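Exercise (ungraded).
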Amino acid sequence: MSDPKKRAKLPRGFVDLGPADIAATEKMLAEIKKSYELYGFEALATPLVEYTDALGKFLPDQERPNEGVFSFQDDDEQWLSLRYDLTAPLARYVAENFDRLPKPYRSYRVGPVFRNEKPGPGRFRQFMQFDADTVGTSSVAADVELCMMAADTLEWLGIKRGDYVIKVNSRKVLDGVMGAIGLGGEENAGRRLTVLRAIDKYDRLGAEGVRALLGKGRKDESGDFTKGADLRPDAIIKVLELFSIVDWVAQSKKGNPPFQAGVDSGAIDDRKAEHIGFEGVIGGVKAAVGSSSTGLDGLAELSRIWVLIQSAGYDDGRIRIDPSVVRGLEYYTGPVFEADLTFETKDEDGRTVRFGSVGGGGRYDGLVGCFRGEDVPATGFSIGVSRLYAALKAINSPIVSASVQRGPVIVLVLDQGEIAHYQTFVTQLRNANIVAELYLGSSGMNAQLKYADKRGSICAIIQGSHERAKGEVAIRDLVLGAELAASTKDRADYLDLRTRAQFSRPEAELVEAVKEVLARHP
Amino acid sequence: MSDPKKRAKLPRGFVDLGPADIAATEKMLAEIKKSYELYGFEALATPLVEYTDALGKFLPDQERPNEGVFSFQDDDEQWLSLRYDLTAPLARYVAENFDRLPKPYRSYRVGPVFRNEKPGPGRFRQFMQFDADTVGTSSVAADVELCMMAADTLEWLGIKRGDYVIKVNSRKVLDGVMGAIGLGGEENAGRRLTVLRAIDKYDRLGAEGVRALLGKGRKDESGDFTKGADLRPDAIIKVLELFSIVDWVAQSKKGNPPFQAGVDSGAIDDRKAEHIGFEGVIGGVKAAVGSSSTGLDGLAELSRIWVLIQSAGYDDGRIRIDPSVVRGLEYYTGPVFEADLTFETKDEDGRTVRFGSVGGGGRYDGLVGCFRGEDVPATGFSIGVSRLYAALKAINSPIVSASVQRGPVIVLVLDQGEIAHYQTFVTQLRNANIVAELYLGSSGMNAQLKYADKRGSICAIIQGSHERAKGEVAIRDLVLGAELAASTKDRADYLDLRTRAQFSRPEAELVEAVKEVLARHP
């Protein structure tokens, strides 16, 4: 090649996956698929590329339109983009095929999505999502069903009840609180976003951290200062009322006094332990939304949701109402939900943390309407596959741990002139459905056996001139061979071991002998 | 939404896939995977995006570097591209991980690739490939193995022996012929490409068409003129010698005289019927390469390949040497192969044509070396999944025809106030592993039953106030229901049919009753 030497480098924020990760991910996706199909969702695959204007400007946590999206022009100078989620393409698909689809239309989709962002630990530019959406119904039963399905799916994947929770809130509640503290209207969109982001950090920072972010701002452990929303003290208390009761519960469970000194005790000092649960949570929400009609709508929505959750029996901790759930996307219009893993794990710095969110979603009644000029109600749930995969690894789920495969049977090539004959051994094995390959390199016997080890092989086939003269093959059990190599001759069964670790058979008995060896190491 | 109405349009050259296509494709991919794994290849997944400079300029049939590739800059202004095949990313991966990989390294990869080209019938901008490659060996046994695997894979997918052929050639033969007609060297690269493209059209145009393209040029049926390579008559005869014998065989089989009047008879009039087969083919190649040492190398390579094919028993028509195989990619350095389906089908204009190529590959000893500054021998085979899928559909393979799924059991909602109670029916069914859903729209009973039909459901659950009062549910068999609707009352078993098409049961027997109905329609 006349090219100068090129740089062999995986692009930043992207990953290569080897066989074990691929096999485990496939098993995991098959389980999710079974769970989604049980709920009546049917598969849809849209391309990875859409017209840029069809994707819209709904990327989470981005203020400038199309920031964070990979975009390019085709040979006709049309702007195209890599999809950044699986919801915008669904909206395009439904709008384009509206008349011929059954309604409500229930679909699931799985595949990679892309973000043009600075990559970091656990933050990739290509990652996989698995979504289910119901389009064409405004019934909260559709939202509740997604939450139930999320819970079922986590359990199918081996996450135990109690190790996860599906949290539900309503955007209308949050909008109501915004109205109640004077942050309604287009002109307050920026400050509203700052407040929502502060609320969203509740899980990580607690009430005190959120209070700081709602006020002047917060200095984190590293000394970095994040500017706050600069709300007035009474507005801060109103917002904190939303989830103060949740904080109270969490603190009680840890055996701590319910409130930290000086923090938000004013807002909630009249609450009692018996308020815990749905009624308690709703009490906080009621206080926070005041007389806002949007907020009261949200409150009614949460009550209807709770009735359905109870009747399906998911009120046993699997699903709960949690007013701190924000979800980043601008387009949500009603119920929003989040799937959180509650067990503890270590973060990148070795600190113990709760695993946190592995998925979420919500109602987006306006998104399909962007194409059709009329609102089409819709709701959806999305699993972050890579993150969930990391969680399954952390709990050593059988889904991901049982996917180590053994290597092929290796037929050694000790005489390149006999390669056609060696090839017939491989063909016989494959015809018997045994994974097998001819050693294709040019190294000697020891290197060939090392290659077999590296591939995780159980068995190697050896035929030197000695065996060939007798019409025989030697079968080597690589597992026993390794054991033999680590033994001494004093071992009682040394001779027996040696006999079993490598033995000769007539060529015609090759397949049978290999099956024998493979059966020793199931 | 304040957005103006957006255009809901699938980008040109991309497709959406529904549940039947997705299920069939998955089954097909699972079979290919099993076949590749049986040959000892292990899975690898690289990202869809690579640094542009790592992809190189090897796109088939493109003269300008990077033409036909979708490229864009990331937030650090680095140029990235969507992969256009699965070989260039493998070369990057192997070069980057060279020291820790077993050698030879055998991997398979499957996934979408992208081309920034004018789309057309059967020509997409995103399509799927399934590749296997062996890196780190120059043995032709690796090439032969890929050909054998290609044949096995097609048979696993239900393509009968005789309906396909794997054709093998060597680039060295073609290079030798180029040298022999004075087209060696960098300065003739352009004309060489024109000649190779002409040879590549042999299957479609026959000897006469190729002869025209090697000379002044060719006018096709529509009157369009393609400029030719402008070779001298003796050079044209030399090139035609390459596959004249093949043409001869084809003509004989059709019962036609071996040569059309006035066409290439000068070159091959001394051949006899007994030359058919490998010897005959090799005879033509010998004449064409003359004394070119590269050409003679190629000839020797084809002979070694043929020995291996024979000893594996694939010389029964599954694999054959065919000097007309070119394969477009500039980077091939040795054996090249192509998987062709030989059965007939209709093209877009309704004409009967052979189905043609569904995959191919070859040896590319220089590609990994672009990164490492030393040649790393490698060979690979790629299946065009979408094209093969079309072929399986054309022959009605069970792989693709048996994947129609039945719809979920639909629980009708006749009283929105009772939705929580209806939900419990759905939960019971799902707990029994029966795909079920609650009707989530707001339409009346007839529309709900139409929805169930549209979903392909077998069974609907109905509970109106009448049934509810008695603690019962009505089970509707939608298949028998349709039969009933098409019958008249004179039918002998009309009453029995009506009884079986819809019946009531106590709520507690819901799951059992649904199982009964589902079992009627396996």
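Further reading is listed at the end of the chapter. For now, observe: Chain B touches chain A through 111 residues (CB under 8 Å). Residues 233-253 of chain B form the longest helix (21 residues).
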